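For consistency, the fold was encoded as tokens, which produced the following:
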Amino acid sequence: MSVTPDLAPPTDLDVLATDDSTPAARSLSPSRAADFLTCPLLYRFRVIDRFPEAPSPAATRGTVVHSVLERLFDLPAGGRTLDAARSMVAPQWAELLEAEPELAGLLDDGDLETDDLPSFLVDADALLARYFALENPQRLEPAERELRVEVELESGLVLRGFVDRLDVAPTGEMRVVDYKTGRAPSPGFESKAMFQMRFYALVLWRLYGRVPRLLQLLYLGSGETLTYEPDEADLRGTQVKVQAIWEAIARATESGDWRASPSKLCDWCDHKARCPEWGGVLPPLPAPAPVAEQGSEPGSVPGQP
């Protein structure tokens, strides 16, 4: 199975908020924080310029598999079988295609001539089989699936995200689970992979007053599990790091200095052609959004999520 690096495109949570209760100028998701850490210019292209990105087969396959695993728990425990999961792939793909017709561009000529699954979804069966090898869904009753979480820090920064699955034991202990359709990170890179989970754990801790007992990443591409047991010190350190990321974003916004960080990930970046590191011409920054001109808190970043 071919695996592309995790350059996740923006989700709905990364789009500027328009309500008065949550100023769009001071919110951050783990995906966009990771973008800035990977390459500040990538953050700018996605969040400020909002350049469109072409849908990818790998990301679309991941969305379908996530949808299947979410809906699998709608079934009675005894019905949560691998065959049942596999039978959901085609309906979930059809539902996604109806919601996002532009995904039809991923179909090749052979896909257009048959009612079978598109070629890029063939690997979905193997991904689901690896999921069932990692855990038995018949023995699980998740408390939440695709849980939207949001909390405001004392600084005014709002942290947001979607948790794939939250398991809560009768004793109240929480396990945060995230599905990854790629392969597990190489030794030495686990901490970077776990940043997203620490971000979620921080939000849940601030919301519920309890540190999650376990953070768990299920890598369906390689059939491996990565786990971590956080404590308060970890989450306080995560809050400091997240706040520092936001302050760095604020400085880049104020100075207009969005530097590229070239790496092997550039080969998968939709914006490589416009990046100065690869001979591109950096486009001018867009004009500030009108909502930001109405006034924002000191230290906020006008018009940024």
About this structure: Residues 1-5, 11-24, 291-305 have pLDDT under 50 and may be disordered.
